[in-house]
Predict the 3D structure of the following.
Amino acid sequence: MELIHKNLPALIVVLPLCMGLLTSIIGRRGLGWWMAMATTGAVFAMSGQLLWNVMHDGAYQITYQMGSWPAPFGIVYIVDPLNASVLMVVSTIAAVLTLYARKSVASEIQKNRLHFFYALWLFCTTGLLGITITGDAFNLYVLLEISSLSTYTLVALGRARNRRALTAAINYLVLGSIGANFYLLGIAYLYQVTGSLNMADIHHILVNQVFPTWGGDAPQYRTTVIVGFAFMAVGLSLKLALFPLHGWLPNAYTYSPSAVSGLLASTATKVGAYAFIRVIFTIVGVDFAFGLLHTDTALMVSAGAAIIIGAWLALKQTNLKKMLAYSSIGQIGYITLGFSLNNVNGLTASIIHLFNHALTKGSMFMALGVVVYRLGNARITDVRGLGRQLPVTMGVFVVGGLGLIGVPLTAGFISKWYLVTGAIQAGRYEMAAVVLVGSILALMYVWRVVEQIYFGKRDENAPKLREAPLTMLVPMVLLAAASIYFGIDARATSWVSQTAAELLLGVKL
Amino acid sequence: MQIVLDYYNYWICIILMMVGFYGVIAKTNLIKKALSLSLFQTGVLVFYISIGKVDGGTGPVLDEANADAVYSNPLPHALMLTAIVVGVATLAVAMAIIVNIRERYGTIDERDIEDIEHQTEE
């Protein structure tokens, strides 16, 4: 037991990796799902334990040295409140969606390939957890590619239902690889200047040895650092689908298998956002990124455009999965806006929204997954009058929709509250206005669907639908209930997020 | 001229990367696109390798006879071994998807695929 406790930060990545390999070999005949379920369940427990440990740790930091090589020579895994909460998001969603995936995926993928699906599923989780926990900039790249490569394949597996999944996957692959390579190139520049790959160490060298020379006549490596940061920022913006680099996202979300859409929407872009926050706040530092380069202004413009245009495009979609995909682009805008405000409330909004939006979007994609499971498609005409026939599923969809709008008593309200407070504190009244306009647009696109669900008439001849199977219903309801619970009692989530934000900005300690 | 000769390793990286980047954007044949992506990655690899070189440095094997030997930095090489593996895996996944596209669409040209997708609804 002691051994497990001491090695938790490593185990949380190594366990799904090994289980993924094992699943691809012995996971036939339905065993694959059981292995994936057990693994994600264990990972969930571990990340819960890590979050608990780190929040009750005096220094708010747990450091784990891989193979006992001390930093900066070895790779270290570092847990602090920020990434502990992102780990919690990833592992919660992974565990809940694995339960959901059983029936949903079985209907979308050939039976003899199921064990490969769950192997990729676990690899994807491995990569996402690894990106979150690692304290090494190059290690982050490797894990980014592990998660991305398995994601491309998972998206392509939607081919059984619609061949467009294939073109969506190749598009995602090309853009995703360019993004990852830009990030890699950015690391090369910083490595050239600092000779280190450890995030904290890079920061230390930059702040103590490189930046002080910039004031004088002989600035050292000024252009190199700026170009390096620019490459990393663009690469990660591609990964997190920040407007206008979101081109790969809508089709990838729409045509992938339902469970994969859920996983992608609620974790992949969130982890990208986390990595971006790390680069800005931990590697190069706020004074450089925001103070010198004014990246915050650029991010705010992108985020504002994402919020308005994402929601506007969502309003025009007839395919509901695509509508949620565009809405996700808008939600990524909220997350980016939060950290670009550079104050505690804004950053808290970002971190809390990572969690709240994962709950909301996850449950909505799951609800649409049920419609796809029963009808084979999820157009707006398909859900007409389904409120009577699928009461629970549609209820979940509506709760999620209220969360997207940010109605009080849902989790989305808490995020927007912090976000608007942060914007006003930073004196960015126009950004607060953008958030409100975005909410109104969200109200419009959610209402459009709700109207069809409850007031539309279903075709007389259409067959009567049964409610979703229990293994799909339970995870969906769990997420929806959680999004209401954390909307009413946000003490736990805001405690963790606020602590993380204060630590990042150096207000605490 | 001097700036080209002094930094020729960087120029090679830039040319490789830009040729690859151009291919990724401009080519419509998916296989050419995937190969261009590979070329782009190679540019990054060469960049890493070249920054590991130390002026006058020898191979990083400890030379006990010569106490003040200068060694080149082996770390970027080690990093690029990983990146090469990633590149190969990316290319393999891309090719697998392209084979599937060929089977389902009957073409690997982006423009033709777009036409087909426009003609058929969802």
